[in-house]
Design brief:
By secondary structure, the protein is mainly alpha-helical. It folds into 2 domains: 67 residues, Winged helix-like DNA-binding domain superfamily/Winged helix DNA-binding domain (Arc Repressor Mutant, subunit A, Orthogonal Bundle); 148 residues, GntR ligand-binding domain-like (Four Helix Bundle (Hemerythrin (Met), subunit A), Up-down Bundle). The chain has 9 helices and 3 strands; from the N terminus they run αβααββαααααα. It has a 3-stranded antiparallel β-sheet. A hairpin with a 3-residue loop joins β2 and β3. α1 packs across α7 and α4 packs across α7. The longest helix is centred in the last third of the chain and has 32 residues. The N and C termini lie far apart (46 Å).
């Protein structure tokens, strides 16, 4: 039976957290899809009407989006939308390279057989989903693979930062797409990383990881560029 446990969350979720998460997800998608202009103020009164909820979950959602770099919250002025340009996206991936490279070095100090096997199982799930062409689950399976190889270093602060980045990257991929060829490229990069870890080739693993993230960034920027060209020609 296919193991899809990475899709499940066994932790209890409070009602307030569910509402704030829903607001954050919806608002994140709206910003990325261009429903709000860069620099536009997000008025609390408008957001209350839009989402049909109270101020508290909206404030919490805005705080989360500020942490992701999508909005700026200014004293006495409220929240403003930030520009999502190429520089912003490059910075996201630079942050991933820095944090994940650090975590990978820490994890490689004591390569564990169980850790390697869990990475292989996670990659098997990813590969099986490519055949089914289920893009949302492929993206989540990719995050699951990275959570496994990042969590071994046991640095929760770094992991929390990466989770915020993952939410943002997922929203960007949902808006701008993910070419099928990149899925297969990701698979080959993951497999290469696993082989280096099995051989305890830390430098090789780091080289593959950095190349992996840089390829993801290049693919993202290419997809965005293509969409903009299509919009201009249309």
């Amino acid at each position: 039976m296919e193991n899809d446990s990475f899709m499940k969350n066994d932790q209890p979720v409070s009602l307030s957290n569910t509402i704030y998460s829903r607001v954050a997800d919806s608002l994140r998608g709206a910003i990325i899809n261009g429903e709000f202009d860069p620099g536009q103020r997000l008025k609390m009164s408008d957001l209350i009407i839009r989402f049909g909820t109270s101020q508290m979950p909206i404030r919490e959602a805005l705080q989360q989006l500020q942490g992701e770099g999508l909005v700026t919250i200014l004293p006495h002025r409220g929240a403003q939308v930030k520009s999502i340009d190429n520089h912003f996206i490059k910075n996201i991936y630079d942050l991933r390279i820095a944090i994940e490279s650090f975590l990978l070095r820490k994890a490689c100090e004591s390569v564990d057989t169980d850790w390697i096997e869990n990475l292989k199982k996670a990659q098997d799930i990813y590969d099986s989903l490519i055949e089914k062409k289920n893009i949302p689950r492929i993206i989540e399976a990719n995050h699951h693979f990275h959570r496994i190889h990042n969590s071994v270093a046991e640095n929760q602060v770094a992991l929390d930062t990466l989770e915020r980045t993952n939410r943002l990257v997922t929203a960007l991929r949902t808006a701008y797409g993910y070419h099928e060829e990149r899925f297969h490229q990701v698979s080959a990069e993951h497999r290469g990383l696993i082989k280096c870890l099995e051989k305890k080739d830390i430098n090789g693993a780091l080289d593959i990881h950095i190349n992996h993230v840089e390829n993801g960034r290049s693919n993202m920027l290419l997809e965005i560029s293509q969409i903009k060209k299509n919009e201009e020609s249309g």
